[in-house]
Amino acid sequence: MSSNVPIAQGDITAPTPQNTPLTQAPIGLGLSRPTVPDISEDNEPAETDGNDSNLPPGAHSAMLGLVQGRLADLVGKSSGYIESLPVEVKKSIEALKGVQVKQNELQNQFRRECLELEKKYLELQKPLYERRTAIISGAAQATQEEIAAGVEASRKDDEDYTPVPADAPGDPAPIPEFWLTALRNHVGLSDIITERDAAALKCLTDIRLSYLPSDQPKPGFKIIFYFSPNEYFENEVLEKTYLYQEEVGYSGDFVYDRAIGTEIKWKEDKDLTKEFEIKKQRNKS
C-alpha cells in the first residue's frame, strides 16, 4: 500500500506522512517531534544572555550539569503526599489508576482504527497522486478539464488572478524542480534546506508514502524518495521509515520511537553532510 505524499500543510508536530520528516499527523494529532539535531545545529553559535562573561572557562557547563543532575534525581520520586493520605483514599487512587488503564486500552484501539481508516483513504487517493506524478514529469498531458479546475481554484485563492488564455499555443509541459520548490515552500522544511541540499534535491523526481503493515508490532510509515541520476550519490531510491511506540502516550496519541534510513552511497568528495577543505599547492619555484 503505497502512494505519493500529500503536499497539504498544517500544524507542525512530529514527523508524519504529511510533514516529514519535520503538519498534522495522519497517524494521530499532536505527536511529539523527535529531538534529533540536524547538521546545521553543529555550526550555530551558542546563545548567551551576556551575564556569564565573568565566569571562568567551563563554569557555565559545570553549573548546567549540576542543575540537570539535581533535576534527574527528582524524576520518579514521590513528594510524600500520597503516602500521607488515609488508606481509604489510597484505595480510591489505585482504583482511579485502574480506570485509567481501561481508558488507555480504548485509546489504543481508537488510534489503531484511525490508522486503518487513513490507510483506506490513502489507497483511494492513489490514482490522483499517480496522475499528479504524470503531469509533473510530463509523462501525460493535462486535460482541459484539469486545467479549468485549476484555474477555478486559483481564482478562489486570488481574486486578481489572471488565467492562462485558453487559446494559448503549446501543450502543458513538465514542471521543472517541482519537489525542490514544494519542499522549500514547506513551513517545516524551508529553513533547513541549504543551497548544498538544493543542488541534490533538484534531482528529486518523486516522493511516495506507504504505511507499515497492520501485523507489525509497532505502527509507522515509510517515505520513499526517488532521484534521477546525479553527481552526489549512487542511490536512485532513498527510504526513511518512522516508527512509533506500540502503546499511545498520556496525550492519547502515538509516541515517536525512532527512524531508520537508507545508507546513502555518496560519490567521492560529494558527501553533503561533510565539508571538504581544498588546499592550494604552493609554487615551489
Give an overview in words.
This protein is α+β, with helices and mostly antiparallel strands and 285 residues long. Helix content is 33%, strand content 14%. The chain is built from 5 helices and 5 strands; from the N terminus they run βαααααββββ. The protein has helices at 59-74, 87-137, 144-157, 178-184, 195-201, and strands at 2-4, 204-211, 220-227, 237-248, 254-261. It has a 5-stranded antiparallel β-sheet. A hairpin with an 8-residue loop joins strand 2 (204-211) and strand 3. The longest helix is centred in the middle third of the chain and has 51 residues, at 87-137. The protein is extended. The N and C termini lie far apart (66 Å). Residues 8-16 and 18-45 have low confidence and may be disordered.
How is this structure best summarized?
It contains five helices and five strands, in the order βαααααββββ.
3D shape: extended
**Terminus-to-terminus distance:** 66 Å
User: In angstroms, what is the radius of gyration?
Assistant: 26 Å
The helix/strand class is alpha+beta
Strand composition percent: 5-15%
Strand order of the largest sheet: 1-2-3-4-5
Order of helices and strands: EHHHHHEEEE
Main sheet characteristics: 5 strands, antiparallel
Give the integer mean of the pLDDT values.
79
Secondary structure tally: strands: 5
Q: Helix amount, in percent?
A: 25-40%
> How many helical stretches?
5
Low-confidence stretches: 8-16, 18-45
